[in-house]
């Protein structure tokens, strides 16, 4: 079965459903990023303090304590499961766009690696591997850029008429 460009052949009802899904999913995704910014200042030291605490920092404005093993397992478990589902559905939608194969494959597969590096990195950071804060920050940024590119492409192809399809 030919999936490339299938998005142009979908009925208007299915296109509307996908559009609504992508918009609501994006609101959830980006509100999560706002939460990350609130809790870690989206900086390497902020990421470290969020998981390891800052009770030794006398200049800290907000006191943070090291997360418990239960908290870390809950964060890692819930985020890996939920984000794998998010990126699976977004990947399915990317698969029916008319992108060239290398870019399409990248946008479909990369987010899964970023999820593992981001949340695996958080766990290793919590275990004391302090340089993982940079891996977490980079992989989180790459995950966000991949998500953003995918949704822009999906929404664009949902709402333009393509010749030859």
Provide the descriptors you would attach to this structure in a database record.
single chain; 165 residues; mainly alpha; 5 helices
Explain what this protein looks like in three dimensions:
By secondary structure, the protein is mostly helical. The chain has one domain (6-158). Helix content is 72%, strand content 0%. The protein has five helices and no strands. Helix 3 (69-95) runs antiparallel to helix 4 (101-126), helix 3 (69-95) packs parallel to helix 5 and helix 4 (101-126) packs antiparallel against helix 5. The longest helix has 29 residues, at 12-40. The chain is elongated, with a radius of gyration of 19 Å. It starts with 11 loop residues before the first helix and ends in a 7-residue tail after the last helix.
Described by the principal axes of the CA atoms, the overall outline is: elongated
Oligomeric category:
single chain
Low-confidence segments, given as residue ranges, are none
When the domains are counted, the total is 1
Structural class by sheet pairing and helices: mainly alpha
The termini sit apart by 15 Å
The ordered string of helix (H) and strand (E) elements is HHHHH
Query: What value does the Rg take, in angstroms?
Result: 19 Å
Mean pLDDT rating: 92
Number of strands: 0
How much helical structure, as a percent, in the residues? over 70%
